[in-house]
Amino acid sequence: MDKQLLKDALLASLDDEIASALAAAGEAQATASHGENKPENQYDTLALEAAYLAHGQSERILALQQLRIGLSKWKAPQLGDDDRVQMGACVQLLSDTDAEIHIFIAPVGGRELNLDGQRVLVVNQDAPITRRLLGLILDDEVELTLGGEARTWEVTGLY
How far is CA 21 from the centre of its chain? Predict the structure, then answer.
């Protein structure tokens, strides 16, 4: 599994999220400043609510942009079979029912990527699953609940 491709896919995912947030902020700003949304009385708060929404979206955009900058500067370590699971690891797991999943521990998590037909779950260093995986080595087993089902998983690859 090429971690540079994973990082590029993660950056593209952030770019998409930033673009969506920009579009939402633009819509909220347009709603807030549209002449037809001028308050008719003290209880008419549509323009005010849209202004608050536009402000919240702008803060979200800034946070996403900062995450993207940090991720673009981040160098994921190259790991081998003798290393332990750590920040930047891509861990290949095989369940007791022969299901396979790849988990990428990155600065930005909460995403699922599809890279060359492989499903890759991206988690950050604060995710509960990360705490369960840190320090494991090749052939270690761990109990994880993925997709609502608890299973025993074996570390079969570490990149």
Answer: 15
